[in-house]
Amino acid sequence: MLTAAAVLAAAGLTAVAQPTGAAPRPQPSGPSTVCSPAGTLKGPGGQRAVVSLCASGGGAGTSLSAPATCRRTGSSVRYACLTSGTWTLRRDGRTVATGPLPGGRETPGPGTYEVSGRVHVRSSPAGVDLRGTVRTTLTLTDPKPVPTHRIEVDRHTLRPRSSTTLTYTVSRESDAGDGSARFGLIGEEASGVELTTSDARCVNPLTGRHPSKARSMYALDCALTDLQPGRPSTVVVHARVADACTSVVSKLGYWMPRGQSLYTGGMLAGPTVTCRPSDSRGH
User: Given this model, what pLDDT does residue 181 score?
Assistant: First the structure.
């Protein structure tokens, strides 16, 4: 949890925890990680875990973690808490983001959010093992980041026992960064889908140990090096779907150099091409 907290603190989302209905508190002047008490889990034998929910972010992502303190009535053991589970972010009763604990998703933008976590808290050494749901309210102030890249596709539906040509267009919207990006597509392995292209920038990934020549035909990996604002790149993909339906998801990993800083760039989720089973009635 110390490592997770350090990573979250470095990410830099300005967030403030406050009780429902309370007046907004002064906002921090710089990036921070904010934790709010979210609930206490209790169990047999005096088990007890006090859980907080912490928000952090900056850049394109918002991350949530659930640090906890553990104890057991009558025991003098100093426990370390290990927490896992999932989190949900809601605004005005509508779910805007979910993810694993600890983990993150795209920044939803400024506003006051209800945060809930379904958590599993275990102690080291053993002695506390609890599950439950905790809740709090967080006010996030980081603006939703301006997109730097965009992915579009000309078709959004596949059908079983057919081949479909998908044309993906990858655009760079920002003058920041450079023209390099990794574009990836992947279907469900067990479906038997095959993704192929004649584009020399793309390959089906190798699998297995050397000297294996086997490749994952359900995935494509493309190295794009010429993305410029006003000059998008097009990748034409042939998707052959077998009897089983499968969706095809896409993503883009891009480099935003800042000197020799190691952790730069980001990931962008592209469109999902879904599969529609054939209607057995012929409609």
Answer: 95
Confidence check: pLDDT of 56 > 50? yes
Rounded-to-integer distance, Cα 58 and Cα 115, Å:
18
Q: Is the pLDDT of residue 10 over 90?
A: no
> Exposure string (b/e) for 14-41, b if CB count within 10 Å is 16 or more?
bbbbbeeeeeeeeeeeebbbbbbebbeb
How high is the pLDDT of residue 282? 42
Nearest to 1 by CA among 49, 58, 66, 52: 66
pLDDT digits (tens, 9 = 90+) for 61-103: 788 999 999 999 988 999 999 999 999 999 998 999 899 999 8
One-letter amino acid identity for 200? A
Residue 220, burial from CB neighbour count under 10 angstroms (0-12, 13-18, 19+): buried
177, 105, 100: which is closest to 144 by C-alpha? 105
* 274-275/157-158 β-pairing: parallel
- Which sign, positive or negative, has the C-alpha torsion 10, 13, 16, 20? negative
How many CA atoms, within 13 angstroms, populate the side-chain half-sphere of residue 250? 24
Question: Which residues, other chains included, contact 42 with Cβ-Cβ below 8 Å and sequence gap of 6+?
Answer: 48, 130
Question: Which residues contact residue 56 at a Cβ distance below 8 angstroms, ignoring those fewer than 6 apart?
Answer: 8, 9, 11, 12, 13, 15, 32, 33, 34, 62, 63, 65
Those residues whose C-beta lies under 8 Å from the C-beta of residue 44, and which sit 6 or more positions away, are none
Tokens of 89: 């972010």
This prediction has a pTM of 0.69
